[in-house]
Write a structure and sequence with these properties.
Radius of gyration: 32 Å
Oligomer: single chain
Largest sheet: 9 strands, antiparallel
CATH architecture of one domain: Roll
Number of strands: 39
Distance between the termini: 31 Å
Structural class: alpha+beta
Helix content: 10-25%
CATH topology of one domain: Ubiquitin Conjugating Enzyme
Number of helices: 15
CATH superfamily of one domain: Ubiquitin Conjugating Enzyme
Shape: globular
Length: about 850
């Protein structure tokens, strides 16, 4: 994301630049690529379809028309500050008409999109209604009338697969709302025109290129996603046919976020007389003045128009400029209306604790264990604290009222994932049932009424949801009275419909158009369905960040001289061979356990020798003589990381094809996600294991890779100092405001999960490592608690030495982290005391955070 005139450049931005091409290109266009290309320039699509390359220093961002209700944004002037959610959008369009090589002629300015229709009435992803069924358009079949210079006209069915643009620039119309538009020059193989019906004239071998005169929808393919309450007991098989031969019988409901208006989009007025264009200077009859001196040319022009009068329609207008403003609800609860879109940055939250006002949350740590839900009133981005108004339903919270809590102790309520902009359908309820039942008798009435499908327009502080229904009425409902329609990619819906879609010759649309339309969706669909803030509450999805917390390295494979008070009689070998444990993740995989023959056995013994002689000091491995395919690995969290003093266990299995294939690895997670590469399910995502993409030395190599390499990679690349950047694609955020914004909360939450993992391990240590776990925490308990004490006093996670002595620092940890830590420490003290750890008494009553927790 580069800077342009003080602002960041994002894909699909409308930008202004100094025009050098002349003609109809204009001085503005849409940014096409995410990163600079050759010569450090950006590709920009202009209104006439041409692509120019412009240096970032010559670009000024003027509009972001892709904003929509529900998208999460940050201020362009403070991208590292608080986030906001767009609750409403207002757009105005300037229109021009392109005429060959001449400059664009202005038609109208400040036109609301509601006054316009696109060339193709229905677009990919559009929501449509047929009777009591709601669906989404996944393919559109177009019939195109092509006119030739001599007046002949033919109709090409399923044109998206048979015709292509003659001009290279026009090919970028695939990024706009239709692949074809009246006036476009197209070319097709002679066999296409020969097999097509001729409306005027007849086929000739020389006719391979012509001009689009008319574009019509011949049919659409619809993926049915929901139905009205009256059809709740009807099977999906009763839904309308997927292929709709008469698209005009469908009722349009709304377009998805991917169908926004942008420069280059071609359109018509819905009511041609409803918007009068100013009389532009370009409308002077210059050709007529010239023709008086050339009567022969005048006659020729008349004949040409006469020949094509039946086929030629009004040429569409093109969007030359957009002006977009947005209403934004910020995390601290303040609202701004009419914010210029260029002053906002699209920001997909990478922090699951970035709650937004109106979201319903539950406690995931601390508290009395009740499942009471509350509504977020505001969040302090700096303090990581949340003001929550508890709902008094079910009397789960006897005190009710508002409460200031740590963001780390909260998660999104799984029973209420409604968010701004969601498409929702009404569920059956007694108040509405009679009306719905009457409407269900008449599919046409139901399709026209649309009282059962709507958009979420606001989230109320009392837990209600404000919904604007398809009949333009707005009502308050409770979350359990509506269902959110999952937002899916068109390609995903096509896959679910099956391969028959692609084999039906009567259905068609341009595959590239399909992908382009969906790729313009700048939202993260899953983020929308999950309340737009990655708010997957609970420990199972906890992500964490960076951290720099030193601790002394342990070398328990040595003489034990560094163990500082631990039982000196205890020695735990770094590598040993024993009988397989009953709790190994791969124990029941007996087919793999048979091994791979003598060569395989020889290779396994070689791996054992390498591990026995080359393990890092803080890694411990057990092999099993009765199951040579299994291994168990324990790692001690390294100093300088948020994993310091923690223990992390991995079960491995060597397949019969080893080393041709890498080992399988499972992390003992206890349902916690302590790293982007370590899933709650136990999956370890690593290129070396072929569970993540990579290239070259990153991938498993039978010739050079080994179990030791896997172990060292997990310790060094996964359990590292800045795990936030382990997430795919996040490395680009290093040093950016977005990255810096998320580093601290990611690090703080990682440490909290590290402490929770300690408690789980003390209660359920892996078989064969019971004594190891106990003695590790006997040795390190006091250091862990001293570190917690320093953090409760405000020290920054990652600034403590091995003996929990604080280093100088300029920043402090967040108030929310201290609140959450104060809830964990008593349970940690209890777990340490249960194994007989010394010196825990002074931590029985940990100091509570005394800093202001105001939001």
């Amino acid at each position: 994301m580069e800077k342009a005139s003080g602002r960041s450049i994002c894909p699909f931005d409308l930008v202004a630049f100094k025009s050098t091409g002349g003609g109809a290109h204009g001085d503005r266009g849409r940014v096409l690529n995410a990163r600079p290309g050759k010569g450090n320039t950006r590709a920009v699509l202009c209104v006439d379809g041409a692509v120019v390359r412009v240096k970032p220093s010559e670009i000024t961002v003027v509009d972001r028309s892709y904003l929509y209700p529900g998208i999460v944004v940050a201020s362009a002037s403070d991208p590292g500050g608080q986030l906001g959610v767009v609750t409403g959008v207002d757009r105005a369009l300037d229109l021009v008409r392109l005429d060959g090589e001449n400059a664009a002629a202005p038609v109208a300015g400040s036109v609301p999109p509601g006054e316009l229709r696109r060339v193709r009435v229905l677009n990919l992803g559009d929501y449509v209604v047929s009777g009591p069924w709601l669906g989404r358009v996944v393919e559109v079949s177009l019939d195109v009338d092509v006119a030739f210079d001599d007046g002949a006209v033919c109709r090409v069915a399923d044109a998206c697969r048979k015709l292509s643009s003659l001009r290279g620039g026009d090919g970028l119309s695939r990024l706009t709302n239709s692949s074809f538009y009246p006036g476009q020059l197209v070319v097709g193989h002679r066999s296409v025109f020969r097999a097509s019906p001729w409306l005027k004239g007849y086929w000739k071998p020389s006719r391979e290129r012509g001009t689009v005169a008319k574009v019509e929808m011949a049919g659409v393919l619809v993926y049915w996603v929901a139905s009205s309450p009256s059809t709740s007991d009807i099977k999906a098989s009763s839904a309308p046919p997927a292929y709709q031969e008469n698209p005009q019988n469908l009722t349009f409901f709304c377009s998805p976020p991917s169908c926004y208006w942008s420069i280059g989009d071609r359109c018509f007025f819905r009511n041609p007389g409803g918007h009068r264009a100013p009389p532009p200077a370009a409308a002077k009859e210059q050709p007529a003045k010239s023709s008086r001196n050339r009567p022969g040319r005048r006659m020729a022009m008349r004949r040409r128009v006469d020949h094509r009068s039946d086929a030629e329609l009004e040429r569409p207008m093109s969007v030359a400029n957009t002006r977009t403003t947005a209403d934004v609800l910020w995390q601290d609860g303040t609202r701004q209306r009419g914010v210029a879109s260029a002053s906002l940055l699209l920001f997909v939250p990478r922090n699951e604790h970035d709650f937004l006002p109106g979201q319903q949350v539950v406690r995931v740590r601390g508290g009395d264990g009740s499942a009471a839900a509350g509504v977020v009133r505001g969040l302090s981005c700096r303090d990581r604290t949340v003001s929550v108004s508890w709902l008094k339903q079910e009397a789960a919270m006897p005190n009710g009222g508002d409460e200031i809590l740590s963001a780390y102790d909260l998660g999104i309520d799984g029973n209420s994932r409604v968010f701004y902009g969601n498409v929702v359908v009404r569920l059956r309820n007694s108040m509405h049932e009679a009306v719905v039942q009457a409407q269900s008798n008449d599919r046409k009435t139901m399709g026209d009424d649309l009282s059962w499908v709507g958009h979420v327009s606001d989230l109320c502080e009392d837990g209600h949801v404000l919904v604007k229904w398809g009949n333009d009425k707005t009502t308050k409902v409770l979350p359990h009275e509506i269902a959110v329609v999952k937002l899916q990619m068109v390609s995903e819906m096509l896959r679910e419909m099956g391969d028959w879609v692609y084999d039906d010759g009567d259905i068609g649309d341009d595959a590239v158009d399909n992908n382009a339309q969906e790729q313009t969706a700048v939202q993260e669909p899953a983020g929308i369905a999950d309340n737009g803030a990655n708010g997957e509450g609970g420990d199972d999805d906890s992500d964490t960040e960076d951290g720099l917390v030193p601790s002394t390295r342990l070398n328990w494979g040595g003489d034990g001289s560094d163990r500082q008070g631990a039982d000196d009689s205890f020695r735990f070998q770094q590598f040993d061979v024993m009988q397989s444990p009953p709790d190994h993740h791969y124990l029941d995989d007996t087919e793999q356990g048979t091994g791979g023959g003598r060569r395989w056995i020889k290779r396994v013994h070689k791996e054992w020798n390498i591990l026995e002689n080359s393990l890092p000091d803080t890694v411990y491995v057990r092999a099993y003589e009765d199951r040579m395919d299994l291994l168990r690995v324990a790692m001690v969290g390294a100093s300088g990381t948020p994993y310091h003093d923690g223990l992390f266990f991995f079960d491995l299995q060597l397949p019969p094809s080893y080393p041709a294939a890498p080992p399988s690895v499972n992390y003992r997670s206890f349902g916690l996600r302590v790293n982007p590469n370590l899933y709650p399910s136990g999956t370890v995502c690593l290129s070396l294991l072929n569970t993540f993409g990579g290239q070259g030395a990153e991938l498993w190599s039978p010739e050079v890779s080994s179990v030791l390499q896997v172990v060292v990679s997990i310790q060094g690349l996964v359990l590292n100092a800045q795990p936030y950047y382990n997430e795919a694609g996040y490395e680009a955020q290093v040093g950016t405001p977005e990255g810096r914004r998320n580093e601290l909360p990611y690090s703080e939450n990682t440490y909290l999960l590290n402490l929770q993992t300690m408690i789980h391990l003390l209660r359920r240590p892996p078989a064969g490592f019971e004594d190891f776990v106990r003695n590790h925490f006997l040795h390190r308990a006091r250091h862990v608690l001293l570190a917690c004490k320093a953090y409760l006093e405000g020290r920054l996670v990652g600034t403590l030495g091995g003996e929990a002595r604080a280093a100088d620092q300029g920043r402090s940890c967040s108030v929310g982290f201290r609140l959450a830590l104060a809830n964990v420490v008593p349970r940690l003290v209890e777990a340490f005391a249960a194994i007989g750890a010394q010196g825990c008494e002074e931590f029985d009553r940990p100091p509570l955070c005394t800093s202001s927790a105001s939001g």
